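Researcher: Next sequence.
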Amino acid sequence: MSHNYSRRRFLKTAVLATAGATLASYCSTTRGAKIPQHIGVQLWSVREDMKKDPAGTLAAIAKMGYKEVEPFGFDGGNLFGLSYSEFGGLLTRNGLTMHSVHSGLTLKNWNAGTNDITDDTKKTIDAAAKAGLRYLICPYMSAENRPDIAKMVKLYQSMGKYCQKAGLRFGYHNHDFEFTEKGPDNRLLIEWILQEVDPAVLAMEMDIYWVHHAKHNPLDWFKRFPGRWELCHAKDEAKTVKGETVEVGDGVIDFKTIFGKSKEAGLQYYIVELENYQTTPMQGIERSRQGLLKVFA
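Model: Next structure:
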């Protein structure tokens, strides 16, 4: 992929993202909801299918009606055994785009000597920018790093600043522990992240299932930190003791009420994800998409 082509693709993506922000009022509770511009699927949901047959899986996803995907495992090298240009070619042939990817991040990405992210980490960010991405998202904070939350927020701040220079946004995706575990000053880990990292360089990807599973109400966090939640993962919670993930519409989460506050939240990107399946992963993400569309009907 040439630099000029990558730059043109990035600028096009940025324009679309800006348009998405302008259209954030599509989920007004008083005027009725409209189908969002950005509905995608996190490819972790179909990871085994992607491992066996990425081309066939992406073609099937497009046939379902998806227009966007969110890959995982971005490390500056390849995706699903393909170079970024090869993977991008598959997306283009199937009418798909990717605005965000998940990329692992730990304190190994921090250089204590320079008080900054490592050079290799910067190369990964540069690769994400060249691939035309809008968001580079940290999907998880490891248990061993959580006691060092003060260092982690410095890492996230530096990631955000370098991403901003490169022309994309750094993001953080939550699980349940951020809403249950506390730092050394008794603040929840999610509060550390939201209060210590400059919102100008950090976008939040709310996993609605995990917030609900932690016995919190997403609406409360929309109200406390309005405009911070630019992306979300949509998966439902089963009506069981374990409360495992199920397809949107098959569980107990009130997505209609939650997405009725999308404008307050700042939501632009709605991404289906599944970790447990009632049928097959591919059937699950298709059912989830239909369930999500019904929320906006």
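Model: The longest helix spans residues 3-22. Residues 176 and 214 are 5 Å apart (CA to CA).
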